[in-house]
Every structure is written in structure tokens, then in C-alpha cells.
């Protein structure tokens, strides 16, 4: 088991954080049973783990259509599923409902978890969901160029750059067969 490994060069990670974000002091390496060497501030008695930021991605479904949006500053030539960061104190399901309401004006129900994917380069862990349209009309915010329903069967053609979103659609398509 991992807990009983002898420390060697492989288990000591390169320290990612060098200075304490609270006091600005230099961090030292402290051994943690679970994680190996972890950057540590002696003054604040805090460890700074190399953790990923959790996000949600959700496919909102209405009959045989899925809600896609386009924001060119994120993806130039691609529509995407609705996504967002999980706020502190919020469950992932609460984030899903909040982001859909904020970005589209729509209320959803029957939120189901589909699995997670990590993007190491962006330090993200994406929790993917599918949910059903419940109530409301689409209200496009000024940040969004396009927002609307697209047939699930043809959604992949419009989502060339949204890799995680594409995987969600592929899962939905395979579940419908
Ligand atoms: Zn500190």
C-alpha cells in the first residue's frame, strides 16, 4: 500500500509553491503520510497541496436536443457545453443548477453525474453531468454570442474544440442506443 512506501526520490514531488500566499514567507518541504513531500509554511502551520480546481460541465437536454453556447474568447470556432467553477460551500449539483440558470436563464431537473476528467495543464478536474430542461426561456447574456438547442446527433459537428464536452455527448449518444 502507498502509505507504507519508503520515501525515495520518486515519491518526493518537485515543490510547486515556493512562497506562502498568506505571509509571503519561504515554504519548506514537509512530509505528509498521504502525499509525500508537500510545501509547508512553518509560521502559518499550513500545507499547500498540489490540488486541481473542480469544475462542472453539463449537457442540458430537451427531447432530442442539447443546449450549446458559443463564446469566441474561449473557443474561436466551436460551441461548448455549459460549464463553471464550483464555489466554496457549494455542492457540484448546486453549481450545475446555478451555472445553467446564470448562463441561460433556464431551470433544470434530474441532474445526473456522468464521470470526471482531468486537465493537468489547466489544473482542472471536470465533473460531468447531464440534466433535463425543466422551465424557462433562453436568456442570452452579453458575454455569449450564441445560445440555443442543437440536435444531439449533430452536436459533435459544432463542438470541434470542446474535448470534454464531446466526450459527454458521445456518452449520451451511446446511452441512447
Ligand atoms: Zn505563511
TrEMBL record:
PROSITE patterns linked: NUDIX, NUDIX_BOX
Signal peptide (residue range): none
Gene Ontology annotations for the cellular component aspect, listed alphabetically: cytosol
Cofactors, names only: Mg(2+); Zn(2+)
Entry's Gene Ontology molecular function annotations: metal ion binding; NADH pyrophosphatase activity
Alphabetically ordered keywords of this record: Hydrolase, Magnesium, Metal-binding, NAD
One GO biological process term: NAD+ catabolic process
One Pfam family this sequence matches: NUDIX
Catalytic activity field: a 5'-end NAD(+)-phospho-ribonucleoside in mRNA + H2O = a 5'-end phospho-adenosine-phospho-ribonucleoside in mRNA + beta-nicotinamide D-ribonucleotide + 2 H(+)
UniProt EC number: 3.6.1.22
Top enzyme class: hydrolase
Domain Nudix hydrolase: 51-173
Top-level taxon of the source organism: Bacteria
Family: Belongs to the Nudix hydrolase family. NudC subfamily.
Family matches, as PANTHER family: NAD-CAPPED RNA HYDROLASE NUDT12, NUDIX HYDROLASE, NUDC SUBFAMILY
UniProt protein name: NAD(+) diphosphatase
Naturally occurring in which organism (per UniProt): Clostridium collagenovorans DSM 3089
Amino acid at each position: 500500500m502507498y502509505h507504507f512506501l519508503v520515501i525515495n526520490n520518486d515519491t518526493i514531488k518537485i515543490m510547486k509553491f515556493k512562497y506562502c500566499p498568506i505571509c509571503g514567507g519561504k515554504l519548506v518541504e514537509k512530509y505528509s503520510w498521504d502525499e509525500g513531500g508537500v510545501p509547508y509554511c512553518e509560521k502559518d502551520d499550513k500545507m499547500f497541496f498540489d490540488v486541481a480546481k473542480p469544475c462542472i460541465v453539463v449537457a442540458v437536454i430537451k427531447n432530442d436536443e442539447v443546449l450549446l453556447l458559443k463564446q469566441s474568447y474561449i473557443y474561436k470556432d466551436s460551441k461548448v457545453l455549459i460549464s463553471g467553477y464550483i464555489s466554496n460551500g457549494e455542492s457540484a449539483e448546486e453549481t450545475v443548477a446555478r451555472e445553467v440558470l446564470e448562463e441561460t436563464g433556464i431551470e433544470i431537473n434530474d441532474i445526473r453525474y456522468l464521470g470526471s476528467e482531468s486537465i493537468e495543464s489547466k489544473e482542472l478536474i471536470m465533473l460531468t453531468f447531464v440534466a433535463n430542461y425543466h422551465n424557462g426561456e433562453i436568456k442570452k447574456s452579453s458575454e455569449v454570442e450564441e445560445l440555443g438547442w442543437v440536435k444531439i446527433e449533430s452536436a459533435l459537428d459544432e463542438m470541434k474544440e470542446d474535448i470534454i464536452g464531446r466526450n459527454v455527448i458521445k456518452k449520451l449518444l451511446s446511452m441512447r442506443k
